[in-house]
């Protein structure tokens, strides 16, 4: 098993960050560009399309708002899991941590690729949160 984790501080309330991160219709706005998540029947069922392999994978996505936590993973094959945790760190600032665990080496794109993707995703999430907060304020 291989695990990766990245964190980023964002200038927004944890509720705003979590609501943006957990919005299934806007996941593509911050996830790595090569991943696309779509609802697949009743929640928490989703389908993940990966451009790198051009495959659709049955997965689960759970949002626990009271814990400010998203959890996901593959359904049938158990190839990978992950979570995103939002924590308030005072005065309208949040820390977002993303953790990935790969149980199947064929799904692990490698340390550098995963680290870059996590950094880009957190940056994109921050941009989406800023847009949302700025639009609500303006």
Descriptive account of the structure:
With 138 residues, this protein is α+β, with helices and mostly antiparallel strands. The protein contains 2 helices and 7 strands. The chain has a 7-stranded antiparallel beta sheet with strand order 1-7-6-5-4-3-2, covered by helices on one side. Helix 1 crosses helix 2. The termini are far apart.
User: β content, as a range?
Assistant: 35-45%
The SSE string, one letter per element, is: EHEEEEEEH
**Average pLDDT for all residues:** 89
Portion of residues within helices? 25-40%
Poorly predicted regions: none
Chain-wise SSE layout:
Elements: E1 2-10, H1 14-22, E2 35-39, E3 45-50, E4 55-64, E5 69-74, E6 80-88, E7 94-102, H2 111-137
Antiparallel strand pairs: 1-7, 2-3, 3-4, 4-5, 5-6, 6-7
Notable traits:
alpha+beta; 26% helix
In short:
By secondary structure, the chain is of the alpha+beta class.
């Amino acid at each position: 098993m291989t695990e990766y984790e990245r964190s980023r501080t964002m200038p927004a309330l944890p509720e705003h960050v979590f609501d943006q991160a957990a919005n299934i219709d806007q996941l593509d706005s911050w996830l790595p560009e090569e991943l696309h998540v779509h609802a697949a029947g009743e929640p928490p069922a989703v389908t993940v399309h990966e451009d790198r392999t051009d495959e659709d994978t049955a997965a689960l996505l759970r949002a626990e708002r009271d814990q400010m936590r998203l959890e996901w993973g593959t359904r049938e094959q158990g190839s990978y899991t992950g979570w995103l945790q939002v924590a308030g760190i005072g005065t309208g600032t949040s820390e977002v941590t993303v953790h990935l665990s790969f149980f199947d080496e064929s799904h692990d794109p490698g340390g550098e690729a995963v680290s870059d993707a996590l950094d880009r995703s957190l940056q994109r999430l921050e941009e989406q949160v800023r847009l949302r907060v700025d639009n609500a304020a303006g």
